[in-house]
Design brief:
Elements: E1 3-8, H1 27-33, E2 38-46, H2 59-72, E3 75-76, E4 95-102, E5 108-115, H3 120-132, E6 137-145, E7 148-160, E8 175-177, H4 185-188, H5 196-247, H6 251-281, H7 288-294, H8 301-312, H9 315-329, H10 343-346, H11 353-363
Antiparallel strand pairs: 1-6, 2-5, 2-8, 3-4, 4-5, 6-7
């Protein structure tokens, strides 16, 4: 189905561009058939512009519009043909577009149209718009392609109400010319009757409107993102509700309790495994509390095994172990006077390796 592809309602600043006739247009023949021909020059679309239906005009699409106008010379109507009548309705166009060009300075596509003699109402419309400085809107109509506007097919470039065309990025008072061969350039390029003050006001209003449209687009994007988040939260809430029904209580509290119980069980299992390692490696039972206290924070049984092995190889621990072992065995039946040394004297500097070695020698271990 054909779509409204874009339009233009733009303020004219500076002079109108000179749009040449497209190849194949017999301008001299038109002048011979119509002694007083009327041509109008108007903007159609602008590179970078976004139409009200969300279509963005890239340079490739703008260049395609120019090429199709220059190749096909389409007609223009008052408004678009209704979709339900496209298959059967045919009317004479009010315009015949005879040339187009892309203005490199601002990226605007300008086009020139011939207003036939039979379309006297259209001629009166343009004359009045020109005399009163009123704005005229154009609207591009055609079929979007697989790539959107870049490979669209142009059907017509119609006239539309300035406030309702698809791409209101500018407002234009039409340039009406007769294109007579003897006419001078300054005669063709009549001054815009809208005074400079009104131009400034119109420009400010248009800028404010475009800014508002951009803000609306941004807000719509934020609304869409918020709606997606709400949908995700709703799904999560429904899942929690189902879990609550299954466990017979608050799902979040139940999950938290399960996690706490699991953590406690894992901790108890880890401590039991560490204790088993201590029991296995430390044969001397009175020494186990000391080794347990010196373990520190170990991650698992393997780490505990390495730490216990390290502790059992320390000189101070060996001295303590041998002292505890001697205590378990009881005093000797006969003790030489030279051996009557208090254990407390031996342990007074237990962390000194040299002293530990001397103590081992003294006790005869």
């Amino acid at each position: 189905m054909a779509d409204l592809l874009g339009g233009m309602v733009s303020e004219l600043r500076g002079s109108y561009p000179d749009v040449p006739f497209a190849p194949g247009v017999d301008a001299e023949g038109i002048r011979q058939d119509d002694p007083n021909p009327m041509f109008v020059t108007l903007p159609l679309v602008k590179v970078g512009g976004v139409s009200r239906n969300g279509l963005r005009w890239h340079r490739a699409a703008a260049e395609r519009i120019v090429a199709q106008i220059n190749d096909r010379k389409p007609e223009g109507y008052l408004g678009h043909v209704p979709p339900e009548k496209r298959a059967t309705q045919f009317e004479f166009g009010k315009l015949r577009w005879v040339g187009a060009k892309l203005n490199e300075d601002d990226g605007t596509v300008w086009a020139k149209a011939y207003v036939p003699r039979y379309a006297e109402d259209a001629r009166d419309y343009f004359r009045l718009a020109k005399r009163t400085g009123a704005f005229v809107g154009t609207s591009v109509y055609g079929l979007k392609g697989e790539q959107g506007l870049e490979d669209m097919t142009l059907e017509s470039v119609d006239l539309g109400h300035p406030d309702r065309v698809a791409n209101p990025s500018a407002v234009a008072v039409p340039l009406v010319t007769s294109e007579m061969t003897e006419a001078k350039a300054e005669d063709k390029q009549e001054e815009n009757p809208v005074d400079e003050q009104n131009k400034a006001v119109v420009g400010e209003l248009i800028a404010a409107r475009d800014e508002a449209l951009n803000q609306v687009t941004e807000l719509q994007g934020q609304i869409n993102a918020s709606q997606a988040q709400i949908a995700e939260l709703k799904a999560a809430t429904e899942t929690l509700q189902k879990i609550s029904e299954l466990v017979g209580g608050d799902a979040l509290e139940t999950v938290q309790r399960w996690m706490a119980e699991r953590a406690a069980a894992e901790q108890a299992a880890r401590e039991a495994a560490v204790q088993a390692v201590v029991t296995e490696l430390v044969v001397l039972e009175p020494l186990r509390p000391l080794i347990q206290a010196q373990l520190g924070d170990v991650a698992d049984a393997e780490a505990a095994r390495a730490r216990v092995t390290e502790l059992l190889e320390r000189e101070d621990v060996l001295v303590i172990a041998e002292a505890l072992k001697a205590r378990q065995m009881g005093p000797r039946a006969v003790i030489a006077a030279s051996e009557k040394v208090k254990v407390t004297d031996v342990l007074k500097n237990i962390n000194d390796p040299n002293f530990a070695a001397e103590a081992r020698k003294m006790f005869g271990f």
